[in-house]
Structure formats: C-alpha cells, structure tokens
Amino acid sequence: MLFRGSTVVVFLLSSLLLTNSAALAGPKEDVAAATTKWGETLGQNDPDKIVLLYATDGVLWGTLSPTVRSDRAALREYFVTAFKVLPALKVTFGEQLIRVYGDTAVHTGYYTFGYVRDGETKTLPARYSFTFVKDGGNWMIVDHHSSAMPAPPR
Q1: Does domain 26-148 sit in CATH 3.40.50.2300?
Q2: Is this model's pTM higher than 0.90 or not?
C-alpha cells in the first residue's frame, strides 16, 4: 500500500513540475517563437505562407524596397520579388531584444539573409524591427521594418 501511495505522489509531483515548466514560457518566449516561425517560413520561399504571419493591415518596409507595403497583396508582391531576386533565401538571427507591453510587443535586432546566386552563397546583413500584436492566441506582425546594415564608420 505504501508503494502505491508513493507512486501516486511521485506522479502528481511530476505532473505539477511539467505543468509549471510549460507555464514558465511567457510572452517574450512566445514572441521569440513567432519570430522564429517567420524565419522558418521565409526559408520555404512561399509568399502565400509568409503573408499569413502578418496582420491583415500589417505593414512592411522591406530591405529590398523603396516602397512601404501596407496590405497583404502588396506584402505578397514584395515576397514574390524577394524570392526571385534572392534565390533559396534563408535568414539567421543575431542579437535580439524583445519588449512586451500587454498584447503588443516590439522585437528588434539584426539578421543575416543568405541566398544563392550563380551557384555562389551570398549574404546580406540587415537590422530589423517587428511589432507584434496578440490576436487570440497568435502574435501577428503589424509592422516590420528591415534595412541593410550600414558599413562601420571609418
């Protein structure tokens, strides 16, 4: 009888610890996960998938564009062009800073785009700011600014 009771206690404590571990993930981790999802989706080179990570009124000031994009059709057009100009596009994240203000979060940092042109791997370092808004259980991109990293001062 003691063994069976101990087993129940161990099971309950284990369940409690696992539940608390999952609960430790907070909004910053959720925003980091949403950004990681953006990077993974970008790597699929599918404009129809990546635009779904932006709110319907999401705005993009893209690395390769002199034009701000402010609806999903314009966002899609941007990514169609980006995937043509930068074949096999991937992104690697560097230093990041996430700040959460209730249901709004700002994620800034730098990333490096990698792509293949004429059989050679090229890179394009850039800095970014994402603004996310929580919509139900999802963090949606409402504003995304990306610009090429300037050369260091001489």
Answers
A1: no
A2: no
